[in-house]
UniProtKB/TrEMBL annotation, chain A:
CDD domains: PRX5_like. This is Glutaredoxin-dependent peroxiredoxin. It is an enzyme of class 1 (oxidoreductase). It is found in: Mitochondrion matrix. One of its GO terms (biological process) is cell redox homeostasis. One of its GO terms (cellular component) is mitochondrial matrix. Residues 33-197 form the Thioredoxin domain. It comes from Cocos nucifera (Coconut palm). The keyword Lipid biosynthesis does not apply. InterPro entries: PRX5-like, Redoxin, Thioredoxin-like_sf, Thioredoxin_domain. The active site is at C85 (cysteine sulfenic acid (-soh) intermediate). Belongs to the peroxiredoxin family. Prx5 subfamily. The keyword DNA-binding does not apply.
From TrEMBL, chain B:
The lineage of its organism: Eukaryota, Viridiplantae, Streptophyta, Embryophyta, Tracheophyta. Thiol-specific peroxidase that catalyzes the reduction of hydrogen peroxide and organic hydroperoxides to water and alcohols, respectively. Plays a role in cell protection against oxidative stress by detoxifying peroxides. GO terms for molecular function: thioredoxin peroxidase activity. Keywords: Antioxidant, Oxidoreductase, Peroxidase, Redox-active center. GO terms for cellular component: cytoplasm. One of its GO terms (biological process) is hydrogen peroxide catabolic process. It comes from Cocos nucifera. Belongs to the peroxiredoxin family. Prx5 subfamily. Its EC number is 1.11.1.25. It is an enzyme of class 1 (oxidoreductase). This is Glutaredoxin-dependent peroxiredoxin. CDD domains: PRX5_like.
């Protein structure tokens, strides 16, 4: 990837738009992209109760602990307690957890730009904590590094994430599905990615 | 912004709220408070323990008494989005009068000068814990905690001051 970018820069004939596209493809989440190196220094916060936060000294989980050496299905959504996220997106993974395990998936992870306490409240409300690991990207740094962030201020949500799903093996993205708009639920559900693994 | 104090005028601001019919509304503080007696209850975060099990319940329990003393509105304000506030409000099935308003961007909390940096705890910029009584948008009582502690910002202190 890097050598292709170097060649593009040196060639005067290549239009700048194409160079920009190459540069963006290198930084944004895409197939083959290594999640851990795309977001260096980024850590996520496991959904937890406040007491758990205190006893763990508000520890964060580095990405490599989540992804390295593992087969992970991860999905991101705009917000805890919102419509499609609660009624469709999470259930599509929760209800298929056995099928994911049967295919050798080590963990199914849900990430959202929420604090870990709100996420915990939501995960308990959906009774999904057994099946899915919920992680908070409270300052959107994870999603920003992967260019999967989105401004949803118009919907009074502020800076959030797109609706997406990915199959990641040892930190490398093998499959990536991103909805055109976060209110849609066409490509990022559990059933779809189950067929792509 | 200096923290709001007794004698100050309550600044205006727009907060998000899901009303009784589950419609997303934008509420203006001046709109809801002009000519009225209102109590603003600030909390660091929905679904966190002191907020959930001590601070807010006190106001829900004392709501009738506050109303009988002339309070028109009791507004819980947190730097959370309106969906989270709605879900949190639902956990208080017995609640009749307290409205849970979302200061999602933190701009109203900033206008009050009452922000609290809880980034280390994974919460980001939030609100200090407080209870403010305003009569026709003039602050009469401002009980503001230092951090997330819960000592003077409860319903009892507001009742005593009325």
């Amino acid at each position: 990837m890097a050598s292709a970018l170097m060649k593009a820069r040196r060639s005067p004939a290549l239009p700048s738009v194409a160079v920009m596209a190459l540069r963006r493809a290198f930084a944004a989440a895409s197939m083959g992209c290594d999640i851990v190196s795309a977001a260096p220094g980024v850590a996520l916060q496991k959904a937890r109760s406040w007491d758990e936060g205190v006893s763990s000294k508000f520890s964060t989980t580095p990405l490599k602990d989540i992804f390295q050496g593992k087969q992970v299905v991860v999905f991101g959504l705009p917000g805890a307690f919102t419509g499609v996220c609660s009624a469709q997106h999470v259930p599509s993974y929760k209800n298929n957890i056995d099928k994911f395990k049967a295919k050798g998936i080590d963990s199914v992870i849900c990430v959202a730009v929420n604090d870990p306490y709100v996420l915990n409240g939501w995960a308990e409300n959906l009774q999904a904590k057994e099946a899915i690991d919920f992680y908070g990207d409270f300052d959107a740094s994870f999603h920003r590094s992967l260019e999967l962030d989105l401004d949803l201020s118009a919907a009074l949500l502020g800076h959030r994430s797109q609706r997406w799903s990915a199959y990641v093996v040892d930190g490398k993205i093998k499959v990536l599905n991103v909805e055109k708009v976060p209110s849609e639920f066409k490509v990022s559900g559990g059933e779809v990615i189950l067929g792509q693994i | 912004m200096a923290p709001i104090a007794v004698g100050d005028a309550l600044p205006d601001g727009t907060l998000g709220w899901f009303d009784e019919n589950d419609q997303l509304q934008q509420v203006s503080i001046h709109g809801i408070g002009a000519g009225k007696k209102i109590v603003l209850v600030g909390v660091p975060g929905a679904f966190t323990p002191t907020c959930s099990s001590q601070h807010v319940p006190g106001f829900i329990k004392s709501a009738e008494e506050l109303k009988s003393k002339g309070i028109d509105e009791i507004l819980v304000i947190s730097v959370n989005d309106p969906y989270v506030m709605k879900a949190w409000a639902k956990t208080y099935a017995e609640n009749k009068y307290v409205k849970f308003l979302a200061d999602g961007s933190g701009s109203y909390t900033h206008a009050l000068g009452l922000e609290l940096d809880l980034t280390e705890k994974g919460l980001g910029l939030r609100s200090r814990r407080y209870a403010i009584f305003a009569d026709d948008l003039k602050v009469k009582v401002a009980n503001i905690e230092e951090g997330g502690a819960f000592t003077i910002s409860g319903a009892d202190e507001i009742l005593k001051a009325l």
